[in-house]
Amino acid sequence: MTSIKKDAGFALACILLSIWITWESFSYSYQSSVLLRGLAMILVVMSVALFVIRLYQYLRMAKAAGHTASFLEGNDVRHLLKSLLVFGLVGGYILAITLVGFLFATFLFVFISMCCFSGKPRVFFLAYSAALALVIFMLFFNALGVTLPDSLLPFDTFFKIV
Amino acid sequence: MLDALSIGFLTALQPSMLLAACVGVTIGVFIGMLPGLTSTMGVALLIPVTFSFPPAVGLALLGGIYLASTFSGSISAILLNIPGTPSAVATCQDGYPMTRAGKAGRAIGLSVFASCIGGIFSAIVLLFMAPVLSELSLMLGAPEYFLLALFGVTIIASLSEGSMLKSMMGGVLGLIISLIGMHSLTGEMRLTMGQPSLYDGIPLVITLIGLYSIPEVVNILSEKSSLQKEESSQFSGAWSTLKDVLGQRLNVLRSCVIGTVVGIIPGAGQSIASFIAYDAAKRGSRTPEQFGKGSEEGLVAAETANNAVTGGSLVPLLTLGVPGNAVSAVLMGGLIIHGLSPGPILFQNSPDIAYGFIFSLLFSNLMFVPIGLLVAKYCVKVIYLPKEILAASILSLAVMGAYAIRGQVSDIGLMLAIGVLGYLFTFFSVSRAPMVLGLVLGTMAESNLSRALSLVRGDVGELLLQFVTRPFSLALVLLCLASVVMGYRKSRRS
After folding, report:
1. Which residues in B lie closer than 8 A to residue A147 (C-beta atoms)?
2. Inter-axis angle of helices B296-320 and B55-80, to 10 degrees?
3. Which of A39, A87, A147 has its CB closest to that of B172?
4. Is the ipTM here above 0.85?
5. What is the pLDDT of residues B104-151, one digit of tens each?
């Protein structure tokens, strides 16, 4: 029953998104948006169909079972918390790149991530973080010639071998 | 012709050519494994290295990179469910379930041999049938390209795991996302919300990295149980793995043909070929319910087709001077830099270079078998690393890969946003493969539809008439209808 409820939630989100996209598409010229409009309207129809089907199934099952189901299952909360942690760490990584440069940001990101994921800091993590940051830096910026991102404190340029 | 072939064969056997091919294959294996580094980037980054080489040697190096990186995208797809290259998305469907069942080594072994056979087939086709096939590619116009994209859309339904409606919705979402950015003909910006980083649309590689890396990291961190240990040593099973691949003769041959034909069509791409071959294998299989759960047939089909594209994509380049995909466009740049003009003249004036290059592709396909197996033997151990090390490493490589595409920090934010979408897809149990296929097909469908409409001055009736009067268009229309009918009948039966 939870999966049916989730499907209904997914359908509802798609209905809202597709309505917004359809609205937006009519602000563009016909030639630029003919396919976009068609796809957005198809998505509206599909989303409404999925919502109606799943709602009907859910109500029937709830009536037969005599109780409703929650939106989240046992593992879902754990997944959600882990995902928020991952999103937060990557967001912080992006910010750190613009502040202290790629190399130090990567070192900090890898170290903090490993400490958060394992639940306790370890000396090994320091060494691994430094090594991984250096390897990625050497591979992408020195060997492959990718341009260094701009940062407030450009310590990276000292490490880049011209 | 026989003289030219023998000159090419002897050229390819020179130690410098063999060494260049070997080095190219080794580099290509590592490039393809890392999400964010694609065949195109690998070839483009190493073109300057070839300036001082003789043209044939330079081409052998670049050809080796192209072939090997196409195959090695499957290594991270199989081990981590993160496609290393866009062409490995279909491999994730069955490769990763095999890893979870303790058959990672076998999956990679199947991938190696399937890729080798696909690459050899297309190289042989390139060698003997290139001029004939180039005529075929000239017959295809905007209507045919649009219908090919439409045919790809009909395959979306067959990729569904569970609810077909949800999969179709994912596919449509992928098509919509592919339309973000500037329209190819009118230049109008759509759905960019004023963000300059979206003006050129969302690069496919960034979408793949976000869609697969972030949800997989969340899965790794959330898992309580570890993966099943490998059942047997990979090398001891190499010969039996090869025999098993050869035992799927029909599947392999069909996938070779699909990959080569799709490769010949400029702009079609390896992702489309692997999905079409996967779909064909599923429809022709006696156990279609196993697809998506670790079917060896699905894995072999996808890998054979995506490497079969390599030779096919070089047909229009070498015979007409028209690049078949992004990699061949970069290779074309490499040819021009060395003072060679791709096209029919290349075969007349420089048969040693033209045929030598094709024979070196054949040898490269054989070389990546031992190199790929050797690299994979150690890569398999990655999946048994502690989860905190694996998760942090994947995230840092994903961020770097997203940045390396265009050198913009905003692309990392884009990758994160797509990652949130990918997480929501897994939360709601929506398959990601249909969305990827939609992303691949959307741009191709829209640009060719616009082009086809402008050729008939916007007359939709005239365009529909062209769909049924042009022979290749009619064939594609019938294929689309057959695909839809067969898919519907199959879903009714199940």
Report:
1. 407
2. 160
3. A39
4. yes
5. 888 999 999 999 999 999 999 888 887 777 677 677 788 888 888 888
